[in-house]
Amino acid sequence: MKHILNRLINHETLDSTEAKQILVNISSNEMYNQSQIVAFLTVFMVRSITLEELKGFRDALLELCIPVNLNDFNATDLCGTGGDGKDTFNISTLASFITAGAGVHVAKHGNYGVSSACGSSNVMEFLGIKFSNDVDFLNRSMDKAGICVLHAPLFHPAMKHIAPIRRELGVKTFFNILGPMVNPSFPKNQMVGVFNLELLRLYSYLYQNTDKNYSIVHALDGYDEISLTGKTKVISNNRELLFSPEDLGLSQIKQDAIYGGSTIENAAKIFTTVIQGKGTEAQNNVVCANAGLAIATAKQISHKQAFEIAKESLLSGKARKSLETLIELSK
Fold this sequence. Notes:
By secondary structure, this protein is of the alpha/beta class. The protein contains 15 helices and seven strands.
């Protein structure tokens, strides 16, 4: 690692093979000490990750993960990198249940919050959802609730040595960047949010070399999701566009309308209110805009058409039913 760190300090970069092997070595918890790992992570906090490095790190985690076969469901995933520093309520998690309620199966990959107040796993655990890597349970969840939860630590045991370091650092690292790319069910459809335009471009380069249907989004005012607070850059399989709230017949909203609070309890309260159809107009619109894009990506229909499907899922109670069924299955 000393040689690697010296190279990186001298502004050299890693090719994908090197990056992959280093992450495999880190996962073994034998070759490098904690200080060396922290130094390695720090490099990528102060300079941008390259396409080759990102590809190598992704390939390592996918190779080391515990895969789960959900092929019967043509699943989609909705998640963001986190790390945008906005502390919104759990938009992509709510959008996942709305998507499931609309009949599009969701394999939701997530984790506890590291650089944010409340990650998707925090709020779902608080609501009573069980995390499991049992394939029968996951398939039953998909069949009955239309959604299953893939809690990242259960499928990426190689990262157990990194988790305490990430918690102690408390800031975004390249593991934030990797999260959406390493869903262990290898879903064929995905909507991903990223925290800056540079990462949007890197993701698009990597995703265009896969067999996925994808939409990658970044709100130009910094959000890793469609925020409706302004314009959002969207890159999908065959096109690139600048999305505006007006494209869905909506008005732009204020940033404080989608703030999530600073505690898990606050986040869970907002989550419950919205899923019951009692959210504010801004809250309802933002979750349905994101769910709509996920539905559009999976079903290959227009975002506007899919937005109406998402609204019906939320306001009819189908999304809530999906959540309640998953909680019941968890008992």
